[in-house]
Design brief:
Elements: E1 3-6, H1 7-17, E2 22-25, H2 32-39, E3 44-47, H3 51-65, E4 69-73, H4 77-80, H5 83-91, E5 96-102, H6 118-122, E6 128-131, H7 138-150, E7 156-162, H8 163-167, E8 169-172, H9 191-203, E9 207-211, H10 213-217, H11 221-231, E10 235-237, E11 252-255, H12 262-270, E12 273-277, H13 283-286, E13 296-301, E14 315-318, H14 321-331, H15 341-345, H16 358-369, E15 374-377, H17 381-389, E16 398-399, H18 410-420, E17 426-431, H19 432-435, H20 442-448, E18 453-458, H21 463-472, H22 488-494, E19 498-502, H23 508-517, E20 522-527
Parallel strand pairs: 2-3, 2-4, 4-5, 5-7, 6-7, 9-10, 9-12, 10-11, 12-13, 13-14, 15-16, 15-17, 17-18, 18-20, 19-20
Antiparallel strand pairs: 1-8
Length: 536
């Protein structure tokens, strides 16, 4: 039955029909009709302090729940402030629907106040976007946006709605099905290619599986574990693939790449078959490791554009990782020996010199929490420390910006993750450089009383670049010393957040215990040596 209502109210009704319970955003003049309609709904709105944080919080929510995250902004600078967050979601295949207000449709193209071509600006890094000028199309467009964001290789979709369109009246009716001509994501891999993959795995003497973020996105971790244990295949992962299999699993060797673990890179160099699942193997994933002519490659990915893009592939399989791995498991036999046992045994033992190192902190967190947490990280040295030293027990509990490498991601992602999974402990791992990109989200934490924990490594440096300048620029340091850092304990107190500064190893266990037992938001500042290397 059709009901008359404004486009703004129809937008809210579509969100409700998609099961949306929470959105993140900031209102403005060009989006006020939508906010007015939102007032009467049960959808929770989280007021952020900058629009970029809105996308990151929607991302943390989406990656924790598997649902589509929703963020909202007004026109002009509100919309452009979303751009970094949208690009971050695009690179990491996170399902987001971003709704933006636009100036009056009759004024578009006239450079009026707070006008910007946000659909044109975001076209390169959205799965799709829409400028809705016909009010009758709003329901179909929003339904399509959710469908596109959540199917195939997931990603962000932007819907831009002029203010006058939001105010017009339409006859509202939810379509039963969404059919988009030409958009047919392929989930089932070709049976012949799957048969070839099984034969190649069984013929290989030194196979290696590289797990990427696609394993986690498709919820294929159990299928991966079955294949790994059946064939006793060592597993290496990309940054985005951490947690696809427990990092304590006996066949897991660590993260590969330029900042990867030695054992993982060594296994990749020795392998005669590489099975890539849900990863694109970009430059940082491969690092200095060259794919030799003697190594065969099976590449499983739901996005055909990724197969063969960075490495030549012998057996391409386009399909959902969960389905393809399940089919392989039905046909694969069992292997008797784990060929990488000697490599696994070479794991580096880190020294205990009495000093407080970041890896000490992360390992103590792992011990006291026993992996029962969701971790978010920012980008920099602390991201690599976390990737190497934290125990990640379950898939989807290591949330980071992999493809774009966006500083400022960690804290807002933690806020979104906590809203998505309120019963889980959520810990943001950050550095003093990244934290200060979006530290105003402490206000969101205070306003919403979000009980996230923040571990802030303070080395008064932009550590990753500082280390780069030290090694490659003969110590000619420029623009990497953060001498103007605030007192982070006073800052936390100003927002009503409890905090503690950790400066010595003697207080380590106590500090983690205090953080763990505290029921509200908590900031643990860890004073770190500026010359602490990314990889010891």
């Amino acid at each position: 039955m059709k009901v008359k209502m404004t486009v703004a109210r129809a937008m809210v009704e579509v969100l409700k029909s998609e099961g949306v319970e929470i959105i993140f955003g900031i209102p403005g003049a060009a989006i006020y009709p939508f906010y007015d309609a939102l007032y009467s709904s049960d959808i929770k709105h989280v007021l952020v302090r900058t629009e970029q944080a809105a996308v990151h919080e929607a991302s943390g929510y989406a990656r924790t729940t598997g649902k589509v995250g929703v963020c909202v902004a007004t026109s002009g600078p509100g919309a452009t402030n979303l751009i970094t967050g949208i690009a971050t979601a695009y690179m990491d295949s996170v399902p987001i629907v971003a709704i933006t207000g636009q100036v009056n449709s009759s004024l578009i193209g006239k450079d009026v106040f707070q006008e910007v071509d946000i659909t044109g600006a975001t076209a390169p890094f959205t799965k799709h976007n829409y400028l809705v000028k016909d009010p009758k199309k709003i329901v179909r467009v929003l339904k399509e946006a959710f469908y596109i964001a959540s199917t195939g290789r997931r990603g962000p979709v932007l819907v831009d709605v002029p203010i006058d369109v939001q105010m017009q009246e339409i006859e509202f009716e939810i379509p039963r099905e969404i059919e988009i001509p030409g958009y047919k994501p392929r989930e089932k891999g070709h049976p012949l290619q799957i048969k070839r993959a099984v034969e190649a795995i069984e013929a290989a003497k030194k196979p290696v599986i590289c797990s990427g973020g696609g394993v986690i996105a498709s919820k294929a971790s159990e299928e991966l574990r079955i294949l790994v244990e059946k064939q006793k295949i060592p597993v290496i992962s990309t940054l985005m693939g951490i947690g696809a299999i427990s990092t304590n699993h006996p066949y897991y060797l660590g993260m590969i790449g330029s900042h990867g673990q030695r054992e993982a890179n060594l296994a990749l160099r020795q392998a005669d078959l590489l099975i890539v699942v849900g990863a694109r193997l970009a430059d940082r994933a491969l690092g200095d490791t060259k794919i030799t002519d003697n190594m065969k490659i099976i590449h499983i990915d739901i996005d055909p554009a990724e197969i063969g893009k960075n490495v030549d592939t012998n057996i391409p399989i386009v399909g959902d990782a969960k389905y393809v791995l399940s089919e392989i498991n039905k046909r694969i036999s069992e292997r008797e020996e784990f060929w990488a046992a000697e490599i696994k045994a070479q794991k580096k033992i880190l020294p205990d010199d009495g000093k407080l190192h970041p890896y000490d902190v992360l390992r103590e967190i792992s011990t006291q929490y026993d992996g029962e947490y969701i971790i978010t990280t920012d980008v920099g040295q602390h991201q690599i420390w976390a990737a190497h030293h934290l125990y990640i027990k379950r898939p989807g509990t290591f949330i980071t910006s992999g493809g774009l490498g966006t500083m400022g991601y960690g804290v807002p992602a933690a806020i979104g993750a906590k809203f998505g999974s309120p019963d889980d402990e959520v810990i943001a791992i950050t550095g003093d450089g990244s934290f200060q990109m979006l530290m105003q989200e402490l206000a969101t934490i205070k306003r919403e009383q979000v009980p996230v924990k923040i571990v802030l490594f303070n080395n008064t440096r932009l550590g990753m670049v500082y280390e780069l300048q030290k090694r490659r620029c003969t110590g000619r340091f420029i623009a990497t010393c953060l001498d103007g850092n605030p007192d982070f304990m006073i800052l936390a107190k100003a927002y009503g957040i409890e905090g503690m500064r950790l400066e010595s190893k003697e207080k380590l266990k106590e500090a983690i215990s205090v953080m763990k037992s505290y029921k509200g938001p908590f900031l643990l500042e860890v004073v770190t040596d500026p010359d602490e290397p990314t990889i010891p």
